[in-house]
């Protein structure tokens, strides 16, 4: 393959109204920031609030994976849709249950 042909293939024109590439990573970044914020709250001795924030962030990831098309979910798409959604929803519920069951710090 010639170099010129390779360059033309790489710079394919974007469709009119197409979203930028980084926008597809936005749901993943929101989940990542939510989990990081929850871990920070847990480290600052706000275990229930931090765990709640982490559970909400993971649940948001599950909903984003369920609703958005594959081109817009970014790195949240790792397996089949039903498996991704089930796994993240299960983790969100498990984190929320742990936050609820653990007795408050006195």
UniProtKB/TrEMBL annotation:
One Pfam short name: DUF3017
Membrane-crossing segments per the record: 21-47, 53-70, 82-102
The entry's keywords: Membrane, Transmembrane, Transmembrane helix
Domain of life: Bacteria
Entry protein name: DUF3017 domain-containing protein
Organism per entry: Actinomadura macrotermitis
């Amino acid at each position: 393959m010639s170099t010129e042909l390779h360059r033309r293939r790489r710079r394919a024109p974007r469709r009119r109204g197409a979203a930028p590439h980084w926008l597809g990573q936005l749901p993943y970044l929101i989940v990542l920031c939510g989990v990081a914020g929850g871990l920070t709250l847990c480290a600052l001795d706000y275990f229930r609030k931090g765990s709640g924030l982490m559970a909400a962030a993971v649940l948001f990831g599950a909903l984003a994976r369920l609703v958005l098309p594959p081109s817009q979910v970014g790195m949240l798409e790792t397996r089949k849709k039903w498996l991704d959604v089930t796994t993240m929803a299960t983790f969100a519920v498990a984190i929320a249950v742990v936050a609820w069951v653990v007795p408050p710090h006195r």
